[in-house]
Amino acid sequence: MMNKTDISQRVIDFVTARLGTPHPHAGLDPSKTALIVIDLQNGFMMDDVAHALCVQARDIVPNVNRLAEAVRATGGQVYWIQNTHDENCLESWSNLHAMTPPAKVAKRIESMSPGGLGHQLWAELDVKDGDRKVLKNRYSAFVEGSSDLHEILKAEGIDTLLITGTLTNVCCESSARDAMMLNYKVVMVTDGNAAITDIEHNSALTNFYLTFGDIYSTDELVEILHKNADSAQVAAE
């Protein structure tokens, strides 16, 4: 079952008072917007294969596919981010493995190594030929050394990111926060992220929304993307 989003009115009022609007990124430019889909892989979603199973992630797939279609249709780009283990991680990220039971480390390596079933994207995702796939080797896709996503986005003129995937409170929130600090406008999609529990899901969204960026539902973003794209076309005529 999809996580139930519940952002308190106090938080919404605080953001509105601070920024003068509850949605600072409502004016996003669809042609400079990227959908970032984080870790929707068998290694998080498939029974008996996953090293960190989040069954809620299966339920966000239709929303992610809808957003991908809307982003492409309005001139943006779609990026599928794959959590990846390589042998360098054992030394360069040794603290993670020191905090993880050996059996779980072995399962993570099996699940997240390229070429394995766990590393593959979930089969029901609507991945198109024009989309990009990017490997990352840390929770955040934007922390130094994790991936080349930042360089790719800057080269393609992207300034706004829509964050989806799993887990809301780990890889998605980490990537969203770091992206904002790299000067992107960032939106976390409330029904396009998944966590183990509603508490973790809402805590992550609340923490992000209070300081780092915006939150919207899939329906709201699809409407905004098309409305803003139509407005830009009219202005150009």
Structural description of this entry:
Keywords: Hydrolase. This protein has about 240 residues and is of the alpha/beta class. Helix content is about 45%, strand content about 15%. Strand 5, helix 10 and strand 6 form a beta-alpha-beta unit. It starts with 8 loop residues before the first helix and ends with a helix. The relative contact order is 0.21.
Which tags fit this structure?
237 residues; alpha/beta; 6-stranded parallel β-sheet; 6 strands; hydrolase activity; Isochorismatase-like_dom; Isochorismatase-like_sf; hydrolase; Nicotinamidase-related amidase
Query: Structural class of the helices, strands and pairings?
Result: alpha/beta
Number of strands: 6
Largest sheet: 6 strands, parallel
Mean pLDDT across every amino acid position:
94
How many alpha or pi helices?
11
* Outline: globular
Poorly predicted regions? none
Please compute the radius of gyration using only Cα atoms. 17 Å
Distance between the termini: 45 Å
Major beta sheet, strand line-up: 3-2-1-4-5-6
Instruction: Tell me what portion of residues adopts beta-strand conformation.
Output: 15-25%
Order of helices and strands, N to C? HEHHHEHHHEHEHEHEH
The helicity comes to 40-55%
GO molecular function, one term: hydrolase activity
Protein name: Nicotinamidase-related amidase
Domain Isochorismatase-like: 33-220
InterPro entries: Isochorismatase-like_dom (IPR000868), Isochorismatase-like_hydrls (IPR050272), Isochorismatase-like_sf (IPR036380)
